[in-house]
Write a structure and sequence with these properties.
0% strand, mainly alpha, 5 helices
């Protein structure tokens, strides 16, 4: 996994491209009215989905935002979490305009939790 992170950091244009495409996928998926949910996991499925979805985004952003200055490394993680969280909030606002979807403070909170976990995962794997 270190090699993948190293490669992504070296190829920042590709990493930013992957990150932006992933953000577009999130936007597209949240534009689907009345998304189907598995019945036995009616409550837990959205919770798990939000955390995993934004953990991936937090990971990608923490790799894409890089600095050579060691003291600035912790700010990289901070900005990755902030960008992913703000994107999650704007995604919840976007869902207000999609039939069958609602905005939820809990979902935005879960997006933030996922972003934190994804950014921490990058630190642990590096």
């Amino acid at each position: 996994m270190n090699y993948v992170i190293y490669w992504l950091e070296k190829n920042s244009k590709v990493t930013w491209g992957i990150t932006l495409m992933y953000m577009l996928i999130i936007f597209f998926l949240s534009s689907i009215p009345y998304p189907p949910q598995p019945l036995p996991l009616k409550f837990y499925a959205p919770v798990i989905e939000h955390i995993i979805e934004y953990a991936i985004l937090g990971f990608l952003l923490s790799v894409a935002i890089k600095t050579k200055n060691e003291k600035m490394q912790r700010w990289t993680i901070f900005w990755a979490i902030m960008i992913a969280t703000i994107y999650g909030i704007t995604d919840e606002i976007h869902q207000l305009f999609v039939p069958g979807r609602t905005a939820s403070v809990l979902d935005a909170f879960l997006d933030c939790v996922g972003a934190i976990l994804g950014s921490l995962l990058k630190i642990l794997l590096k």
